[in-house]
Amino acid sequence: MTVTSFLIFLPAILIGSLLIHLIWPERSALALFLKFSLGIGAGLGISSILFFLSLLIAPGRVNMMAVQLALLVVFIAIVILRERGQAWYRFKSPTLSRLQWGLIGAVLLALVFAILASVNIYNSRPQGAFDAWSIWNRAARFIYRDPQNWRATTSPDLYWGTHADYPLLVPLNVAWGWETLGTETQRVPFAQGLLFTLASFGVMFASVGLTRTSGQASLATFVLICTPFFFETGIGQISDIPVTYFIFAACALIYLYFQLDYAPILMIAGFMAGLSGWSKNEGLLMVAVSVVVLAVTSRKKMFKPFLWYLVGLAIPMAVIVYFKIAFAPPSDLFAGSSHDTLTKIVDFSRYWIILKSLGQETLTFGGWPFSILIGLAVYAVVMYTNIPSDSRMRFFVLAAIILLQLLGYCAIYVITPHDLEWHIGTSLSRLVLQLYPAGVFLLFSSILEPEKIFAQKA
Amino acid sequence: MTKVKSLLPYLLAILCLAAGGYHLFETLSTFKLSDVTNEMVSTWEVHMKVVQAAIPSNVFVASYLENADIPNSNSKYDEAEFFLVQYGVAPVALKRGFGEEWIIGNFGNTVSLKTIKPWLDQKLGKYTIQDLGFGLYVIHDIKD
């Protein structure tokens, strides 16, 4: 059952990978690895959208596996047609130094540690984290147990704490996974969570590898793998790692666009940003923030690439907008009156509480025995190198997206109708987590890589 | 400074491996080899199957009562148990209090049916009640 719980997602992953390959036909080993890692998320996003559309058109039991296999055959045919006569013979596996092999080996060892830890956690907590069964798998059960009446998962009769307004990427995949296997096994949400977690590591390694070196990519991936909170959240069967993954993937692709100057990459970035909004409401903030930052940037010779980004956003955003307008009840976060909201905005004690909590989170984030955020800051200071003028744009664009996203989270805390300390206590670490991989990526894409240090030493 | 720089990537890698190994060791100490019988949600799931079977399949919304709702009760509302019941009885949406034809009572083992009956008699009039064990009841409000 465990293996089949993973295998059912394979057609979706292949569809996602092939779609990305069609948009971005780069054939280097790292690019292919990046496209496969991106394909995991894109494929799971596509499968959830397909299932959502099928439920809209004909509510009831759907054989999603057959739908996906048919689509996969179409994609394989298109890719084969396009790849005929392409220069695959030029493909070479990368040549790595002993230092690079050593670091990659150590990363793989850390990955084995993390996977063993995750299996142990799953065995002792098969139903996942609190939010898994109170929100995400609850929604999946509503859809799987009564697909004809699937809209009940967004019923206004549901208690606000079940968050019936949350988007459905994760529950829809779990529901069709159960349908495919014919049983409500917890291994399906576990498998989906683990896939998003592993895909995040893949995106980190390949994207830092493309922007810098394999050694630098290994270090960045190391930091992510060895952050216990990241792995625990990933296998907790909740949507925080999917939204983290999509935010990170969009950020990494935006950065890569500026480096490679290949506009269709922005279409994939837009698609990923859109899927972040289909995973969790925080992703909608990512959509807004990235559009604003790219729109401001687009004034400087990138209007057309910006359009690519909007094209990528279009399908997931259309689904989200329709879901929000037609089905989702109002969010609990905007339940307060405008007078209450204004009172909170001018209450400066709230800002102090938020700042203090952010400070504390900086010290304790991630479940490390020491402050990883301060550790990384020290590492960045020591390994600082002048950012070349041609790299500055991408650095500032990504830094602006991360900073504005963080400010957006803080703004929600300012106006939240819930008790502020309770709200911060139950969510801040996960919000910081959502920006953590993008931050680690930016840091390791901007500082001195180990290969250069050893070259200087020699 | 160059020496510090050349050592730092190694230090970072060693710290990461040590942290990863330490985390694995920590989780191993709580490893229970698929023994989930003591896990709270799985335990509730067993009881919720009985509750689900007691509610007709055409019911989409049910009321939810618990100890804190009983008059003069010193109990506090247990939100976690509400979520556990909601998760178990999906796709039925739960609403706190009376009001729906079908009511799930989650009163725990400390409250007897004798204690809650006068209160239910007063609130509902004609009704049937099924005692499902584990302090769980399914009440059918028979409206005239």
Walkthrough of the structure:
- The complex is a heterodimer of chains A (458) and B (144).
- Helices cover 75% and strands 0% of the residues of chain A.
- Chain A is mostly helical and 458 residues long.
- In chain A, helix 8 packs across helix 10, helix 9 runs antiparallel to helix 19 and helix 18 packs antiparallel against helix 19.
- Chain A starts with a helix and ends with a helix.
- The model of chain A has no long low-confidence stretch (mean pLDDT 92).
- Chain B contains four helices and five strands; from the N terminus they run H-H-E-H-E-E-H-E-E.
- In chain B, a hairpin with a 4-residue loop joins strand 4 and strand 5.
- Chain B starts with a helix and ends with a strand.
- The relative contact order of chain B is 0.14.
- Chains A and B meet through helix 5, helix 6, helix 9, helix 17 and helix 20 of A and helix 1, helix 2, helix 3 and strand 2 of B.
Q: Measure the end-to-end span of chain B.
A: 87 Å
* Main sheet record of chain A: none
The helix-strand sequence of chain B is HHEHEEHEE
Question: How many DSSP-defined strands of chain A?
Answer: 0
Q: Please mark out the parts of chain B with pLDDT under 50 across 5 or more consecutive residues, or reply none.
A: none
User: In percent, how helical is the residue content of chain A?
Assistant: over 70%
What's the gyration radius of chain A in Å? Answer: 22 Å
Give the CA-CA distance, first to last residue of chain A: 53 Å
Specify the number of helices of chain A: 20
Radius of gyration of chain B, Cα only, in angstroms?
24 Å
Give the largest interface pair and sizes.
A-B, 55 and 45 residues
